């Protein structure tokens, strides 16, 4: 495998030489940093089982090696260097898998370890959505997730990934993560703080990641991380689980941040050791019970994961000073709600009582019921999924609702070629047309969107911002 030309500052190497446990070789560490990163994917079990996914992709030239800490995770090798980009495959476009670095699957594994079954979870720094979508899959789309992202430009990417994966139990917020302890005290059963960090673990993906590295900068970042973990701990209910993770390797941003929290609340913080998280976890475990993953241990990105339990309540923070503003939605009830449900059912969209109907102007939305206690306490960028727009002739069903709620009713299967046309935003001219005026078009049995029948063509409703050009999936990567 080709070597990367990775920039590793002398001071960083000196720090790593000191930090490396005695059973690991420093030469192996350098060699691992220089090697390109292995690609990995995670099967989206909200849409397809791992067994069915493996059957579906078995005709392809994909070599899949299981990731030890994630049953749905696989390292992927493909024979053809000129293979179609993974993001342009049919299975990716229809949300059957997520391209996710293997070590970044660790924090969610830790969050749900020991049969932990939280109903309301917060992901404090959520974009681009790999961990939020992994949490949603572990929750089976039930309960509720508050996914926060401080960077406005990344909130859109976060929403696109949630929507592609058919997720409907997420509320999006756009705040500095330090506000939640005051705004939502003791509101969550579990919290993931995948903290902003110096990124020392990502040099295999980004050879220039350490171009601006300095110990002073790391200490500045650690100060922010302490504020974030303190806020998250206040937002956690007693008995709840907090997972703290970074993709960096120095002690200042990792062990020391968690030990600082323990020192702040010695009677309320319990460190839950991760020795038994998976078969070979002991190779990366620290004396405190954290996972400190150097890149050579599992041949992945460098990573740090800590799992903490809040054993009792702590003194609350002062109330927040920001104004939430009036919530612009009202519950949809009675006859109007029944009409919307019936019409949705006719087109093939169904949901259960974990989702509730709300309305704003001419829009109908579905919100996860577990998020309702937080309404009025924090401002949401987006909540649940938009089901429909109401117009004179009925309802205009929204793409994200079709992807999340479609079952096996009122579906119309597209061919390889027709599915590619659909993703290019073009109308489809099938040999025969569906019986109903509107049908959920599918490929490989999974929904691509809602098509309206106009004569012999199916009018394309695929959102313009998702339309693809360039190479797509037809006939590529198959051995048959």
Automatic annotation (TrEMBL):
The protein's Enzyme Commission number: 2.1.1.178
Purpose of the protein: Specifically methylates the cytosine at position 1407 (m5C1407) of 16S rRNA.
Organism: Enterobacter wuhouensis
A GO CC term assigned to this protein in UniProt: cytoplasm
HAMAP family: 16SrRNA_methyltr_F (MF_01579)
Gene3D superfamilies named in the record: 3.10.450.720, Vaccinia Virus protein VP39
Residues that hold S-adenosyl-L-methionine according to the record: 125-131, 149, 176, 194
Similarity remark: Belongs to the class I-like SAM-binding methyltransferase superfamily. RsmB/NOP family.
NCBIfam families (alphabetical): nop2p (TIGR00446), PRK11933.1 (NF008898)
Key word rRNA processing present: yes
MF terms in GO: RNA binding; rRNA (cytosine-C5-)-methyltransferase activity
Location within or outside the cell: Cytoplasm
Protein name from the UniProt record: Ribosomal RNA small subunit methyltransferase F
Keyword Isomerase: no
Record keywords, A-Z: Cytoplasm, Methyltransferase, RNA-binding, rRNA processing, S-adenosyl-L-methionine, Transferase
Active site: 247 (nucleophile)
Encoding gene (name): rsmF
Residues in coiled coil: none
Stretches assigned to the SAM-dependent MTase RsmB/NOP-type domain: 29-311
């Amino acid at each position: 495998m080709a070597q990367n030309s990775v920039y590793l500052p002398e001071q960083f190497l000196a720090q790593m030489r000191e930090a490396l446990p005695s059973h690991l070789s420093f030469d192996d560490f350098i060699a691992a940093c220089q090697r390109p990163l292995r690609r990995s994917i995670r099967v989206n079990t909200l849409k397809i089982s791992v067994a069915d996914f493996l059957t579906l992709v078995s005709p392809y030239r994909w070599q899949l090696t299981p990731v030890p800490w994630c049953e749905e995770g696989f390292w992927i090798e493909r024979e053809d260097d000129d293979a179609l980009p993974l993001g342009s495959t049919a299975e990716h476009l229809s949300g059957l898998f997520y391209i996710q670095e293997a070590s970044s699957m660790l924090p969610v594994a830790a969050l749900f370890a020991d049969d932990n079954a939280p109903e309301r979870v917060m992901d404090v720094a959520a974009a681009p959505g790999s961990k939020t979508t992994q949490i949603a899959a572990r929750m089976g789309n039930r309960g509720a997730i508050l996914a926060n992202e401080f960077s406005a430009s990344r909130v859109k990417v976060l929403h696109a990934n949630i929507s592609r994966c058919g997720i409907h139990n997420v509320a999006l917020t756009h705040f500095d993560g330090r506000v939640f302890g005051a705004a939502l005290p003791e509101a969550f059963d579990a919290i993931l703080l995948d903290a902003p960090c110096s990124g020392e673990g990502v040099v295999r993906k980004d050879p220039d990641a350490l171009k601006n590295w300095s110990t002073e900068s790391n200490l500045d970042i650690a100060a922010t991380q302490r504020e974030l973990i303190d806020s998250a701990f206040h937002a956690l209910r007693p008995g709840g689980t907090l997972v703290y993770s970074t993709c960096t390797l120095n002690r200042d941003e990792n062990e020391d941040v968690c030990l600082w929290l323990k020192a702040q609340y010695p009677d309320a913080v319990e460190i839950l050791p991760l020795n038994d998280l998976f078969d070979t976890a002991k190779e990366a475990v620290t004396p405190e019970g954290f996972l400190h993953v150097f890149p050579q241990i599992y041949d992945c990105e460098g990573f740090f994961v800590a799992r903490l339990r809040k054993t009792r309540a702590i003194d609350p923070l002062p109330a927040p000073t920001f104004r939430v503003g009036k919530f612009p939605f009202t519950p949809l009830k009675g006859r109007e709600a029944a009409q919307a449900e019936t019409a949705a059912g006719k087109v093939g969209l169904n949901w259960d009582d974990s989702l509730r109907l709300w309305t704003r102007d001419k829009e109908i939305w579905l919100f996860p019921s577990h998020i309702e206690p937080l309404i009025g306490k924090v401002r949401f960028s987006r909540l649940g999924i938009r089901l429909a727009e109401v117009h004179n002739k009925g309802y205009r069903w929204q793409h994200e609702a079709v992807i999340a709620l479609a079952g096996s009713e009122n579906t119309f299967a597209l061919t390889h070629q027709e599915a590619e046309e659909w993703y290019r935003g073009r109308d489809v001219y099938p040999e025969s047309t569906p019986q109903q005026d509107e049908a959920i078009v599918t490929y490989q049995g999974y929904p691509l969107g809602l098509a309206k029948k106009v004569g012999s063509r199916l009018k394309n409703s695929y959102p313009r911002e998702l339309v693809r050009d360039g190479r797509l999936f037809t006939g590529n990567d198959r051995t048959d």
